[in-house]
Carboxymuconolactone decarboxylase family protein (Psychroserpens luteus), 200 residues
Amino acid sequence: MALVTPLSAEHDPETKKLAEFFNETLGFCPNSVLTMQRRPAISKAFINLNKAVMANEGRVTSALKRMIAWVSSNSTGCRYCQAHAIRAAERYGAEQEQLDNIWEYRTHSAFSDAERAALDFSLAASQVPNGVDADIKKRLYEHWDEGEIVEMLGVISLFGYLNRWNDSMGTDIEEGAVESGNQYLGKHGFEVGKHDGSKY
């Protein structure tokens, strides 16, 4: 059971309207947002930041942004965010071969050198202590411009917030996210853990 109970989607009309964004992204409003709306200023600020971070202004695709989110969430161990990120990557058109082999992005032929640089950046930036170094910078600049790097770090930073929020909260994971997690991550030991509504 989550640390704090999510409120009804009807609780705050402004949050509800903004949260329509997630119907495209995930197919449902996340329980994390329903919990944040206990302080509506937080839920609204979060959704607006999410929309800004996920907007595509360069060559970083929606699918790659969600794979960046997955690598970040995998690094921190947040099962809730791992399942959400892989589900959103699927919904935004990530190639089936990439979804099936996300764990092997460094060596699998489904990933380009540009994608590997972005995903390695996500992994390094999500570690404690932070692992971004001159080599990561060099590889990024071989494939991406500065605006695109800002977009990537926006995703990594957004999921840093979400990983802390959802793992500390033990947010109950939604059925659709469980299905995506099991489908794409199950062969590598994905399990819902504290997010199943009864283990917190």
